[in-house]
Amino acid sequence: MTSHPGQKQAFLICGTHSGCGKTTLTLGLLAALKARGLHVRPFKVGPDFIDPGLHTKICGAQSRNLDGWMVGRGWSEALFSRFMAGADVGLIEGVMGLFDGYDGKTESGSSAEMAKWLGVPAVLVVDAKSMARSAAALVRGFMDFDPALKFAGIIFNRIGGAKHLAYLKEAIASSCPEAVVLGAVPREEAVRMPERHLGLVTADEMKLDSAWQEQLSELVEKHLDIDLLLERTKYCVAEEVGGEAVRPAISQGRGLPAAARRPEIAVARDAAYCFYYPDNLELLEKAGARLHFFSPLNGESLPENCSGAYLGGGYPELFAEAISGNRAFLDSLRARARSAMPIYAECGGLMTLGRFIETIEGQRLPMAAILPFGTRMLPRLKALGYTEAVFRRECLLGAPGTVVRGHEFHYSEIVEQTQDPGLELVYELCGRRGEVLRKEGYQAGSVLASYVHLHWGSAPRAAEGFVRKCVEWDLRR
């Protein structure tokens, strides 16, 4: 394969801690770089769905997750190379604090680890509110902590004004002369993003209109030296002469039966069902499926010609009344489940397949009643963390022994489960260190539902298994 180097820019926006403002600054930089006519490709370290959705809405290019544990180094590096090939700038938003990862002993799972894997420098966001010379001590500690990590510069956030910035620059110049201050952003209430129990609102709900984006872009252009940032973040990526970068191994399927048509998989996608890894959807297509997106919130139901369904996570509890009122949608789910059509659901999708959703206010709204339990919203987080699903029985996604990684993040719990001899628990969930957590993965006939958001990049044959089940159903009907 003949290749030539391509000169671009790429960097990681990271923070000293969660809540320092890196998401707002990431969105501002995306908007500003886009306004300059640059093709920006956004990425997110970690399993998060919300930030990538915001990235995508701002710059118009699909943001991708890079995750050291869920999909590993090879997948993350190949995915980054692939999408950087067609971009001018790669902007990676980190997760938590720069060095925060799976444990206190190693860098595993941290933003710092990902930056070193990809060979990109870090831009450190420091929340300087109520801080003066101590900010220099903080920066000094971050820059010295890992000599192998390169820093492109520092951005101070929530400064008090020009005098505050002068003080901060003086402290950095005297204590960290090698650190480059790229700018400082004052607190700006007008561009703050609202929050709620699951963090920032999703891109589907936020009105990220052109006026809001322009305001954010102007704020960043005014207070940051973007030219200096681009100068300090030059990145060399190998590109194929044909224009296509190295791809992750997403074509590992054995192919569809010769007599089979490409199965159509219905994917619920709207404000209630918006948590999907783009890699998962792409893997389904690579395995031979055609995807048909539909919106239950807009009164749509499963399309007549579909051979399978995928209900992702999101916020069905916020739209439970509309979902419950869409009888055609719920009836179509029940009818297809009775006909043994493959239906796969995660988190919010699982809640939809249950008997009811009980909102935080105590209102119970009936759902599809395919699974023999209801779900109830809680005021506090029920589950959060990475998890590994080991298939103990044959299921929609593969054979016993298959291992797929993912994560949980939900505020609801299963309640009032009734006895159902047809219900099987097909997953054994394990934590990052291999400890067995519990049995999960609710399979009833052709339906498989779980609270776990699986990333099929960790086991591409899971997508192939789902598509094959859809093909088999299609050939039978």
Record the SSE blueprint.
Layout: E1 3-15, H1 22-35, E2 40-45, H2 50-59, E3 64-66, H3 72-84, E4 89-97, H4 111-118, E5 122-127, H5 134-145, E6 151-159, H6 162-175, E7 181-186, E8 195-196, E9 199-200, H7 210-223, H8 226-231, E10 234-240, E11 264-268, E12 273-275, H9 278-286, E13 290-294, E14 308-311, E15 313-314, H10 320-325, H11 327-338, E16 343-346, H12 348-353, E17 356-358, E18 364-366, E19 374-377, E20 383-391, E21 403-410, E22 412-415, E23 423-430, E24 436-444, E25 447-450, E26 453-454, H13 461-476
Parallel strand pairs: 1-4, 1-5, 2-3, 2-4, 5-6, 6-7, 11-13, 11-14, 14-16, 16-25, 17-19
Antiparallel strand pairs: 1-10, 8-9, 12-15, 17-18, 19-22, 20-21, 20-23, 21-26, 23-24, 24-25
Provide key terms for this protein.
29% strand, disordered N terminus, alpha/beta, Rossmann fold, 477 residues, 10-stranded mixed β-sheet
